[in-house]
Specification:
It is built from 21 helices and 24 strands. Helix 4 packs parallel to helix 7 and helix 17 packs parallel to helix 18. The protein is of the alpha/beta class and 549 residues long.
């Protein structure tokens, strides 16, 4: 008799051969055609379990014990051709970063054709025909051009579509999707996920979805498994897990979901801290071989103000010009036109010394703290860097300020001698925030400052940032593509598209009554798990009804 379970992982343990265990006695199962989400914080063991299914554990991890049954057969005992037939042919995987998964030395078409010819033993002409049909199926505008193009020529969302096409061409019975949309903006995220679900339904493919985003889980998953510290601590239907969690850890994950926060109104009277009037930034086209690329208007006539103590969220899809504006404000990019003032002073007309002094009063927190922190320097030296430009500041006073700000961000002076690689992602972002505020700046640009963090750490960093702003009174431009965090941090929201601001409004006003079509599309694409009026959470639409999407 055929088992109703397509995948059945029984008592799986994974760890170092002579070291600690990272996954212990984990069991989970997926029925045919169902979507199972595995959720938890970074380091909970989600990705390790998903990779163990395909025997893709990174060295030096090994499977210590447990069985992995696929369609009733233990696939941990398979070797050679039998294992290759299952891996890729019957079980496919979409990774978080498609640029790492796609071969940069092969064209898109070559990579699509290769898998078909290997697993289905068909000729090149038939493989090409099927690959072109799949590219059209995933809504590529010009399949023939895409077939001959290279991975680096496409955006992150397009690369993830291509990766999905390469997997679904083989019509796998199980698709493993490991954080497939974490690096994508809201609209592209929804497009990719809905395409993935659509293709899976057409082929009766089950999905193992690894994610830390409970909003996405609420929208797409039939069932949920919650992991913590390498163990499965709770499992069940999505609605039951999210609306009536039994374990304290699951409840804590839900509490970390961004929810509206009552913010003290900023002082709108007087001179704004920052004001942009008709700001323009043009990126000059680069010359490639004999052809020059056209110039790009990255920012096109943007105007906005930020009042003392106010946070203005700048939202929009990748490439809309958000980061370019942030770089202009801290002096990393020179505007091509328009006016940019700081506390009433036109930075373009200020003397060099005056402009530098003003810009030292503007600091920036970058998206990836690991690349923005010098790996050779200790935390204390990194945080003290902005103090080097304070005239007459004694070394003892600088050390005192560093210790003080490390305490403020919840690390403590004991972290001063640690190196960045010794810290977690959340701790590194706290160091980046400490460096930004150690001079007590009037203005901070936070560029996707929490997008790389899981929900729990994200909530901690957002609350920390809000508390520091209330304590020190700095203004902030908070750049993000995640609308879910905006209501927790921002007084007002400006929505950008194609280098222009298309709508600006008070935060709650924008969420309740968006005026622009693009804003409405962004809000419609946002995850559907929302705070309920009486406390707790509600699902905006049936979580397991795909027709409601």
């Amino acid at each position: 008799m055929t088992s109703p379970l397509l995948l059945d992982i029984q008592n799986l343990s994974v760890g170092l051969e002579h070291g600690p265990t990272v996954v212990e006695d984990a069991s989970l199962s997926i029925a045919r055609g169902r979507i199972l989400a595995v959720v938890g914080e970074s380091g909970s063991g989600k990705t390790v379990v998903s990779r163990a299914v395909l025997d893709l554990l990174p060295s030096p991890l090994i499977r210590r014990s447990g069985r992995i049954l696929f369609d009733g057969r233990d696939i941990t005992t398979l070797e050679g051709a039998a294992r290759r037939k299952v891996r890729g042919g019957q079980i496919g995987m979409v990774f978080q970063e498609p640029m790492v998964s796609l071969n940069p030395a092969l064209s898109v078409g070559a990579q699509l054709v290769e898998g078909l010819m290997l697993h289905e033993k068909i000729g090149r002409a038939e493989a090409r025909e099927r690959a072109l049909a799949m590219l059209a199926r995933i809504r590529i505008d010009d399949p023939a051009r895409c077939f001959g193009a290279w991975p680096h020529e496409f955006s992150g969302g397009m690369r993830q579509r291509i990766m999905l096409a390469s997997v679904m061409l083989l019509k796998p019975r199980l698709l493993i999707a490991d954080e497939p949309t974490t690096a994508l903006d809201t609209l592209v995220q929804r497009e990719v996920l809905e395409l993935m679900v659509e293709l899976a339904r057409e082929n009766d493919t089950a999905i193992l979805l690894v994610s830390h985003d409970l909003g996405l889980v609420a929208r797409y998953a039939d069932d949920v498994v919650v992991m913590r510290g390498g163990r499965v601590i709770e499992r069940g239907p999505t609605a039951r897990i999210l609306l009536d969690p039994q374990h304290d850890y699951t409840r804590n994950l839900l509490e970390a979901m961004p929810r509206p926060r009552r913010l003290a109104p900023p002082a709108r009277a007087g001179v704004p801290v920052v004001e942009a009037r008709d700001l323009v930034v043009i990126h000059k086209g680069r010359r490639r071989m004999l052809k020059r690329q056209p110039d790009k208007r990255a920012v096109d006539g943007v105007s906005f103000q930020v009042a003392p103590g106010e946070t203005l969220a700048l939202v929009g899809e990748s490439g809309s010009g958000k980061t370019t504006i942030g770089r202009c404000l801290v002096g990393l990019t020179r505007p091509s036109g328009g006016q940019l003032t700081f506390r009433g002073t036109d930075l373009a007309r200020a003397s060099g010394a005056e402009a530098r002094a003003r810009r030292l009063d503007c600091q920036m927190v970058f998206q990836d703290p690991f690349s923005s922190l010098d790996p050779r320097h200790g935390v204390g030296r990194i945080v003290a860097e902005p103090l080097r430009h304070v005239p007459g500041l004694a070394a003892d006073e600088a050390r005192r300020r560093v210790d003080e700000v490390l305490e403020e961000v919840g690390l403590g002076s004991a972290y001063a001698k640690r190196l960045p690689h010794e810290l977690s992602g959340g701790q590194r972002q706290r160091v980046a925030i400490a460096r930004a505020i150690v001079r007590r700046p009037a203005f901070v640009v936070a560029d996707e400052a929490v997008s790389a963090l899981d929900m729990t750490v994200q909530a901690q960093v957002l609350d920390l940032f809000g508390d520091l702003q209330q304590r020190h009174g700095f203004s902030c431009l908070f750049i993000t593509h995640a609308l879910s965090v905006v209501r927790r941090i921002a007084h007002r929201v400006a929505v950008m598209k194609d280098g222009r601001i298309v709508e600006t409004a008070e935060t709650e006003e924008l969420f309740a009554r968006p005026r622009h079509d693009y804003t409405r599309a962004l809000l419609a694409a946002a995850p559907v798990l929302e705070p309920a009026a009486g406390g707790g959470w509600r699902l905006a639409g049936p979580a397991n009804d795909r027709s409601a999407l």
